[in-house]
């Protein structure tokens, strides 16, 4: 979670980091709790040493057939004292852990101050906004008119925030996922990985999804979780490991179904495919040495940008401000695609450097020169497939409601160059 040694050394700096996220100071409270815990542990060690000494004395007295009643009473008192000290140390440790579990990652110094997405910073824009000569339609209008995007049937089967895709749109979704995997594996060296869609508490906690985001995920009756993103099983695959230094960097990608309850998003993006309970995403995860994580963050974001560039989708890179950076991230770049139908920028990828935040939670280390050290983990969307399909549909729509297929996708689509 957080480095207690660093916190003890400078609680004011720890609180200043929390203040950037709009949180109240807790540094001195944690230091005081930790001092109390360490005092209890020191007293515990002394009591345990005293118990060992008394045990030897009792043995000696018994061998001499001498009375041991008085010293045995001391032993019993020490036993009760040890039990009390153990309970006290554990109770304090639990209090410390409960506080730390709820605290977000410390932000990178390069993250700008700000309270909301309105304070995010544009890093660069690629391409020109496409303004069509006719009134453009949104993706769901196009899909429904073509008879290939079916929300009523999905609602009959599963409720709201689901969709049934048919025909060429179903193939386009599959094509986009394959296209992304091919770029990431062949050009950026990510290893394609097929992961479980159900994970345990440890995997969710280690990747900072528990306890804070429990309500955003679906849990099965046997206590497992449907993954909100393949980041969870990919990153947690190194949970508890001490990796050889020459094994790093590890780069993994997975195309998977993802599941989110979308708690708290009632009324947002109700129509269409932008915010669904089930969606497909191509995930990127890197496990690296701490000194390599900043360069890896840039490399990962460029991999995601490459997909958009090849598809001819206009996008911009945003550096998220302090108030908009996610709980587990030290620094995040969002990629936002321009959607002509909505006439708006919409997030299509988020690439985050978590530094050692997740590694501490899941105890993932590597053999550094001076002994085991925590790795750094990074994750990013490379890309969200459904949102990429939305961008393709709205960008390449025609006045008659048909949709041109980007040239790079046509070989994947069996030579089809237009839907409709």
TrEMBL record:
Keyword Transcription regulation: no
Domain Aminoacyl-transfer RNA synthetases class-II family profile: 171-411
Catalysed reactions, semicolon-separated: tRNA(Ser) + L-serine + ATP = L-seryl-tRNA(Ser) + AMP + diphosphate + H(+); tRNA(Sec) + L-serine + ATP = L-seryl-tRNA(Sec) + AMP + diphosphate + H(+)
Entry binding sites for ATP: 260-262, 347-350
Places the protein is found: Cytoplasm
Classification via InterPro entries: aa-tRNA-synt_IIb, aa-tRNA-synth_II, aa-tRNA-synth_II/BPL/LPL, Ser-tRNA-ligase_type_1, Ser-tRNA-synth_1_N, SerRS_1_N_sf, SerRS_core, tRNA-bd_arm
Any Pfam family: Seryl_tRNA_N
Binding positions for L-serine per the UniProt entry: 229-231, 283, 381
Keyword check for Amino-acid biosynthesis: no
Annotated keywords: Aminoacyl-tRNA synthetase, ATP-binding, Coiled coil, Cytoplasm, Ligase, Nucleotide-binding, Protein biosynthesis
Taxonomy, superkingdom: Bacteria
Coiled-coil residue windows: 44-102
Enzyme class: ligase
Pathway, per record: Aminoacyl-tRNA biosynthesis; selenocysteinyl-tRNA(Sec) biosynthesis; L-seryl-tRNA(Sec) from L-serine and tRNA(Sec): step 1/1
Enzyme Commission no: 6.1.1.11
Gene3D superfamilies, per the entry: Bira Bifunctional Protein, Domain 2 (3.30.930.10), Serine-tRNA synthetase, tRNA binding domain (1.10.287.40)
GO terms, molecular function: serine-tRNA ligase activity
Transmembrane regions listed in the UniProt entry: none
Subunit-structure text: Homodimer. The tRNA molecule binds across the dimer.
Annotated family: Belongs to the class-II aminoacyl-tRNA synthetase family. Type-1 seryl-tRNA synthetase subfamily.
Function per UniProt: Catalyzes the attachment of serine to tRNA(Ser). Is also able to aminoacylate tRNA(Sec) with serine, to form the misacylated tRNA L-seryl-tRNA(Sec), which will be further converted into selenocysteinyl-tRNA(Sec).
Comment field on protein domains: Consists of two distinct domains, a catalytic core and a N-terminal extension that is involved in tRNA binding.
Stated name of the protein: Serine--tRNA ligase
């Amino acid at each position: 979670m957080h480095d207690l040694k660093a916190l003890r050394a400078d609680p004011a700096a720890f609180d200043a980091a929390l203040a950037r996220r709009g949180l109240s100071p807790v540094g001195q409270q944690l230091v005081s709790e930790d001092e109390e815990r360490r005092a209890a542990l020191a007293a515990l060690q002394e009591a345990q040493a005293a118990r060992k000494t008394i045990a030897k004395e009792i043995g000696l007295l018994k061998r001499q057939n001498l009375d041991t009643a008085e010293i045995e009473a001391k032993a019993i008192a020490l036993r009760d004292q040890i039990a009390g000290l153990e309970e006290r140390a554990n109770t304090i440790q639990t209090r410390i852990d409960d506080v730390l579990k709820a605290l977000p990652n410390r932000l990178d110094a390069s993250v700008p101050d700000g309270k909301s997405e309105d304070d995010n910073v544009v890093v660069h824009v690629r391409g020109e906004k496409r303004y069509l000569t006719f009134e453009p339609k949104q993706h769901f209008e196009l899909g429904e008119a073509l008879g290939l995007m079916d929300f009523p049937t999905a609602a009959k089967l599963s409720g709201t925030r689901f969709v049934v895709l048919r025909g060429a749109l179903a193939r386009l979704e599959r094509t986009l996922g394959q296209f992304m995997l091919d770029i990431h594996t062949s050009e950026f060296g990510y290893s394609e990985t097929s992961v479980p869609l159900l994970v345990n508490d440890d995997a969710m906690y280690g990747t900072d999804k528990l306890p804070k985001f429990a309500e955003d995920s679906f849990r099965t009756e046997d206590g497992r979780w449907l993954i909100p993103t393949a980041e969870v099983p990919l990153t947690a695959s190194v949970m508890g490991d001490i990796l050889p230094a020459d094994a790093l960097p590890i780069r993994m990608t997975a195309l998977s179904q993802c599941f989110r309850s979308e708690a708290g998003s009632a009324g947002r993006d109700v129509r269409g495919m932008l915010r669904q309970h089930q969606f497909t995403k191509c995930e990127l995860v890197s496990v690296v040495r701490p000194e390599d994580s900043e360069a890896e963050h840039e490399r990962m974001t460029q991999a995601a940008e490459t997909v958009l560039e090849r598809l001819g989708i206009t996008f911009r890179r945003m550096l998220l401000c302090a108030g908009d950076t996610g709980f587990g991230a030290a620094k995040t770049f969002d990629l936002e695609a321009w959607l002509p139908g909505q006439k708006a920028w919409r997030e299509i990828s988020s690439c985050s450097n978590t530094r050692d935040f997740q590694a501490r939670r899941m105890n993932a280390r590597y053999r550094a020169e001076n002994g085991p050290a925590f790795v750094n983990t990074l994750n990013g969307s490379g890309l969200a497939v459904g949102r990429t399909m939305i961008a393709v549909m709205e960008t390449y729509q025609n006045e008659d409601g048909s949709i041109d297929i980007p040239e790079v996708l046509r070989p994947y689509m069996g030579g089809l160059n237009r839907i409709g």
